Amino acid sequence: MYDLRAWTFLRVAEWAAVINRCADIVRPGHDRDDRLRTLSLRIPVMRVRGAWRARNTIGSFWRRRKAKEHAERVVMALRTAEVGLDVEPEEAARNLARMMLQISERYAQGKVGALLDQVTFKTLSHGMRRCGCHSLLVLLQGSL
C-alpha cells in the first residue's frame, strides 16, 4: 500500500519537471522553439492552487482564506513569468525555474501560506507592466 503522505509530494515532482524544462530552454545546443512549446504551467498552477489543501496544515477558516489568496498571487506571478518567455526566453526561464524551486522548497517545509516572498510579487508586477507595454508596442507595430 502507498502511504498517503507520498501523494502530497507528487506536487514537488511536477514542479521539478518544470524546472527541468526551463533548464532545457536555457541550455545551448537545443531547439529552443520546441522546448518553449512543451513548457506548460497548466498542471503546476493547479497544484499551487491546491497546495494548502494537500498539506493539511491550515486549520481555521481565516488562515485557509489567506492561503487561497496567497496561492492566487503565486499563480499570477507564475503566469507573469510565463508571459516573459515570449519576450526574453532565457531570462524568463531562469526566473520561472527560481520561482518553482522556491515554491517546492517552501511546500516541502509546510509553508503553504508563503510559497513565494512578497518581494517577488512586487518585482514581477513591475516586470509585467514593462512586458505588457512591450507586447502592446509589438502588437501595434504588427498592425501597421
User: How many alpha or pi helices?
Assistant: 8
Helix content: over 70%
Class derived from helix and strand content: mainly alpha
Q: How many E-type strands?
A: 0
The average pLDDT value, as a whole number, equals: 77
What are the low-pLDDT stretches, counting only 5+ consecutive residues below 50?
Answer: 136-140
* Biggest beta sheet summary: none
Give the termini distance in whole angstroms: 63 Å
Q: What would the principal axes of the Cα set say about the shape?
A: globular
What fraction of the residues are assigned to beta strands by DSSP? under 5%
The radius of gyration over CA amounts to: 17 Å
Give the topology string: H per helix, E per strand. Answer: HHHHHHHH
Report on this model:
With 144 residues, the protein is an all-alpha fold. The chain has eight helices and no strands. Helix 2 packs antiparallel against helix 3 and helix 2 packs antiparallel against helix 4. The radius of gyration is 17 Å and the shape is globular. About 3% of the residues have low confidence.
Features:
144 residues, 80% helix, globular
